[in-house]
Amino acid sequence: MKGYIGKILIVDLTTGIFEEQKVEDEVYENLLSGVGLGAYTLYKNIPKGADPLGPDNMLGFVSGLLTGTGSVMTGRWMVVCKSPLTGGWGDSNCGGTFSPAIKQCGYDGIFFKGISVFPVYLYVDNRGAELRDASYLWGKDAVETEDILEKENWNNKKPAIAVIGTSSEKKSLISGICNDRGRIAARSGVGAVMGSKRLKAVVLAGSKPIKCHDPKTVKKYSKEFSKKIKKTNMPQIMTGRMLPLMGKALTIPKNIIPIDGIVSASMMKKWGTGFGNTMGMYNGDDPIKNWAGSVVDYDKSYYNNVNPDKVLKREYKKYHCYSCVIGCGGVCDIKGIGNGEFTHTHKPEYETVNAFGALLMNKDLESIFYINELLNRAGMDSISAGNTIAYAIECYENGLITKDDTDGLELTWGNAEAIVELVKRMIARQGFGDVLADGVKVAVKKIGEETSKYAMHAGGQEPGMHDPRMDPALGVHYSADPTPGRHTVGAFGYYNYMHLWTKVSWVPKLKLSTPKKVEFEASDRNGIITMANSCIKQILDGSGGCLFAMISGVHNWKIFEWLNAATGWDKTPDEYMIIGKRMQTLRQMFNIREGINPIDFKIKDRIAGRPPLKEGPLKGKTLPIEGMIQKHWEHFGWNPETGVPTEETIEELGLDELLNN
């Protein structure tokens, strides 16, 4: 009884052959499950130079080591592949109810290789696995498909379903994989890989038990955390109109103020991620006008329209992912919005609201609700789609494209009608929408190199809606992570909330006397912090844990203690951080093998503050991004100039021996 199953399923879509493979204990002890197991499997099975959209690429659905053990906030599932968006390592993370279903079918992961001749879906229950014809589902959106498959396969229990929409069928490089009618593993182009394999869905209906070494201890820590969350509430007098003031207040102190991360749960419980819709306007967190503007541009007359209280007015029920005790999600009534074809949608996340709000200078909240459902059904990443449209608008504004190029659309800032229409055309790969359907890097190749200065990305992936000129660690993680452009890897703010120094011996403790300006230095201190951020994030993704739980603090949400209780191991937090370092290094090794030059993932100059903004909260701020990246790599034991893991580090982590077994 170890928390993990010890077995994976490999499905060859070309031949229809299924293969169960045993996974040795040493793999879990060195790499956990989740992304670690995925990286191990893909590194050993994908041939060097494989076409990401070809038969040699492998697509894996992996569950976390802690999922189903009785721990709370550990229901995330991950998709892994060679990314068609970046050409290197790809993974994407999603909530919902799919993660435990993988393990209830008797596997820690389900992997696909090859390409089916016709559309299929995989069905798995306690009796085994089979591929079924999905031709009748091809062309349907993700929600329609899930409804049909749920009805057809609901026998003794409700099945868990992961599915692609039409955007993934058309192999959009910014498409993802959906479950629970709109929760999306959106990044790295994982949907395009699934679409290229003609795999429409994965339907899981197993009911096998998930074992745990010490369920009493796991339950004890779960009760403790749940009790804290229950007591953590936002005062009733706190409204969305106060959030910009809170954001502004955060800019006043000149020194770093350590904050117990549990307070973040109160905001999540009330608004979900939507508190960021306006809170980040005055502290500079929210990117505006294709990363070139500020709250001076998107002022109160704009941002009042995306006040999260206005979003909550349409929320009619809360949404919790599996084993979640916070419940940041929600379902909203959108009857009467758009063309009236949709009645409800998952509450738009902050990322979507900002990507289709401030980033585009759009203040029409109803258009954002409508776009949210369009993208959820198509399975297109809202972060990448919003950044790509921002690029197109700036190209149009500067005369690099005209109405003739845009099929008559007037792509001006804040033109909600044109933005909605362009989203539809991107989903359908119709006209100018086809030019943009694969993100900004591909669009530059199609439109012209002279437009590249308006294309905001890191290594081909558009960045999340958090500005590194406010939190420089974000710039390091956008640039130096094997999956670039990801806001969920780490930030100085995350580090502040997590209180890693209470568990890990070698990380810096934040002190009230530390001035904020040190965060803008290419220092050993910052290199250690960003390295630690990456390591703990890998542990999180190996466990199936939620980032919002991690941000509440390791002194509250006891991931290290849960891992020991679930497995029977007796590892220290320092030893788990070595596992995180090993996982991160393996993902970087995958990139190096595939010919990726790590420095090519560096964020665009505009995002790094080159030249710096002339107004707003980020006025005059520039990141020493190259130096910060070098310090990050140095503390990983990678070559600080190239980002290539050294032979000494690979040997020290035991990766050479592990991969050759």
Describe this structure in words.
The protein is an alpha+beta fold and 661 residues long. The chain has 3 domains: 198 residues, Aldehyde ferredoxin oxidoreductase, N-terminal domain (Aldehyde Ferredoxin Oxidoreductase,  A, domain 1, 4-Layer Sandwich); 187 residues, Aldehyde Ferredoxin Oxidoreductase Protein, subunit A, domain 2; 189 residues, Aldehyde Ferredoxin Oxidoreductase Protein, subunit A, domain 3, CATH 1.10.599.10. It has 27 helices and 15 strands. The strands form 4 sheets. It has a 6-stranded mixed sheet with strand order 2-1-6-3-4-5. Strands 8-7-12-9 form a 4-stranded mixed sheet. A hairpin with a 4-residue loop joins strand 1 and strand 2. Helix 7 packs antiparallel against helix 23 and helix 14 runs parallel beside helix 16. The longest helix has 21 residues. It is globular. The mean pLDDT is 97.
Helix and strand layout, with pairings?
Layout: E1 7-12, E2 17-22, H1 25-31, H2 34-45, E3 59-63, E4 77-82, E5 89-94, H3 98-104, E6 109-113, E7 120-125, E8 128-133, H4 142-153, E9 160-163, H5 166-169, E10 177-179, E11 183-185, H6 190-196, E12 199-204, H7 215-231, H8 243-249, H9 263-271, H10 276-279, H11 300-303, H12 308-312, E13 315-319, E14 329-333, E15 344-346, H13 350-355, H14 365-378, H15 382-397, H16 416-428, H17 432-436, H18 440-447, H19 472-480, H20 492-498, H21 524-543, H22 547-551, H23 559-567, H24 573-593, H25 625-636, H26 647-652, H27 655-660
Parallel strand pairs: 1-6, 7-12
Antiparallel strand pairs: 1-2, 3-4, 3-6, 4-5, 7-8, 9-12, 10-11, 13-14, 14-15
Helix pairs in contact: 1-2, 2-21, 2-24, 7-23, 14-16, 19-25, 21-24, 21-25
